[in-house]
Amino acid sequence: MLKNDLFLKALRGETVTRPPVWMMRQAGRYLPDFMALKNKYDFFTRCQTPELATEITVMPIDQIGPDAAILFSDILVVLQAMQIEVEMKEGMGPWIPSPIRTQKDLDKVIIPDIHEHLGYVLDAVKMTQKELNSKVPLIGFAGSPWTLLCYAVQGQGSKNFDIAKGFCFSQPTLAHELLQKITTTTIAYLKEKVNAGVHAVQLFDSWGGLLSPEDYQEFSWPYLQQIVSALKELIPVIVFGKGCWFALNEMSKSGASALGVDWTCSARNARYLSGGKITLQGNFDPARLLSPIPEIKKGVHEMITAFGKDRYIVNLGHGILPNIPFDHARAFVDAVKEYTI
Amino acid sequence: MLKNDLFLKALRGETVTRPPVWMMRQAGRYLPDFMALKNKYDFFTRCQTPELATEITVMPIDQIGPDAAILFSDILVVLQAMQIEVEMKEGMGPWIPSPIRTQKDLDKVIIPDIHEHLGYVLDAVKMTQKELNSKVPLIGFAGSPWTLLCYAVQGQGSKNFDIAKGFCFSQPTLAHELLQKITTTTIAYLKEKVNAGVHAVQLFDSWGGLLSPEDYQEFSWPYLQQIVSALKELIPVIVFGKGCWFALNEMSKSGASALGVDWTCSARNARYLSGGKITLQGNFDPARLLSPIPEIKKGVHEMITAFGKDRYIVNLGHGILPNIPFDHARAFVDAVKEYTI
């Protein structure tokens, strides 16, 4: 039995005394202890070593007290498991030395055995559960197939992922083949995470907002829907599409337990667009954590009032920025705990 | 008298036989002749030499035939005139060696005399008008004060302009002082462009979509409104805010003649959010020009049908990408001319 099940209650739409809170990338670079580990181990070593992933996942729980933990990992480990090489370059981000651009490239991409290629994530889930000792629930996650395609094809981060989009628009058959391979892998991966013990999963469609609503329906949404459909009977699923306000209505009918929204979508618009019934999660502008602490707390309280305390999970509208002072991150979490109607 | 006044008719909301078309950044890197000039003269030399700016502005008119010309220039020339040094670095984009972060930095920023510091733009307008010989109208433009602040404070391009946002959120008084200086300069600049002979002006709020609706109302919109109010009696004003779907309603009441929308906002949403009466401009995904030509033409025709032929200006949803084949750009313009109800 979990000692704190506020997060799961909100996912089930139950009435709560206050909304739960966690922060995307809360196990991240704003934590001094994380930076100490970062100096000792490179990015994928931290992902692939269950002891390190566990230590990092638990850090924010002990130090700032959110109501859920999210496993320290990266959406790109799925591409690695599919035999697409991914490096993390300092100051540049993800780097794929051999991006997928042709049928020949695609033929080399495998649908991996999860235990064989991502066993370290499952070990990290089990180790983290032991370490958390039922204090708070643990969230597992995956990138959306579209977002993973963006990296696999572009070969690196990009403002507009023009090469990835050009690939989809000029070779749609190949694009759909890659998207389906990623989808099949992701479903198997998340099912194993469920078996290993996570309490909920979140799907990150970080680059869904680069597509027109029509292209989103062709290249992103059907694959997310496949994943939600395969998981929803097993575990609550949260879908977060950055910039995907235009798809909230479709998403609300998908069987997902909650939808993440970014800060460009007001609480009122988000409730309206999502039909008013589904649990929503978000949407504090991560850069707003650079405001003075009293303003952060005021902003959080106004946000809760705008979303309503029920069917709501307090979060940022995207990952926490590395340059956020530790005290400001803690003030964000504290503000939620101090909220009274 | 203009030989082709379709664009101005659409701005006035008059009935037309087909909508006018132009492309943001149409005087750009997809043109082989532009690339030849780019190899000979650096970026700001091209902006600052009226003969070159004129040649580049007229290039797409002769070669692909849009219904309006837009002066070759850059939004950052306004910062340069305010004594903020701006360089354009190959492969990196804008670079501001001494970004504005403190009161001391801000005190050095001047409100320039337009003739003295931006006379070369006014000369380019006059020279271009002569060269165009009333073939099509000429659009002048400026960046929104918020978007210019982003560069002035961040010091370079950025995915999230975290430093610029942190500046606004932690030092709002300074931010407003800078925004007002930019606004005052921009109004004077655009009035002189009107005097020099442009037929319409467009305001580019390229980074407005990085702000929450509330912060947009604090740091971007009031300054855009000042500019629209100062210009609207003199000339038609188009406001284009990338990612600013949430502000379309406010924008529609501003006195602007038309609003630009990006491709994440469907025609139906854009008409609904903007109140259904104002002329809209957009919104083909620039990456969709990488599709095969028959699909481009089909997409353009569907887009016109969705927006309706009246109170509509066909455009991309953002600037044309450098890797677009010339024939594809021409097909976009041709498709509009081939449109029949």
Number of helices of chain A: 16
Structural Rg of chain A? 19 Å
Name the beta content range of chain A: 5-15%
Largest sheet of chain A: 7 strands, parallel
Oligomer: homodimer
Kindly state the percentage of residues in helix of chain A: 40-55%
Question: Any idea what the shape of chain A is?
Answer: globular
Q: Give the neighbour order of strands across the main sheet of chain A.
A: 1-4-5-6-7-8-9
- Succession of helices and strands of chain A: HHHHEHEEHHEHHHEHHEHEHEHEH
- Point out poorly predicted stretches of chain A: none
CATH topology of chain A: TIM Barrel
Distance between the termini of chain A: 28 Å
Q: What is the correct CATH architecture of chain A?
A: Alpha-Beta Barrel
Using the coordinates above, name the CATH class of chain A. Answer: Alpha Beta
Count of DSSP strands of chain A:
9
* Biggest interface, residues from each chain: A-B, 33 and 33 residues
Mean pLDDT across all amino acids of chain A: 97
State the secondary-structure class of chain A: alpha/beta
Quick structural overview:
Chain A has 341 residues and is α/β, with parallel strands linked by helices.
Topology summary:
The structure is a homodimer of 341-residue chains.
Chain A: H1 6-11, H2 32-40, H3 43-48, H4 50-63, E1 69-70, H5 77-81, E2 87-89, E3 93-95, H6 103-107, H7 114-132, E4 138-143, H8 145-154, H9 162-170, H10 172-196, E5 200-205, H11 213-219, H12 221-231, E6 237-241, H13 248-252, E7 258-260, H14 267-273, E8 279-284, H15 293-307, E9 312-316, H16 326-337
Parallel strand pairs in A: 1-4, 4-5, 5-6, 6-7, 7-8, 8-9
Antiparallel strand pairs in A: 2-3
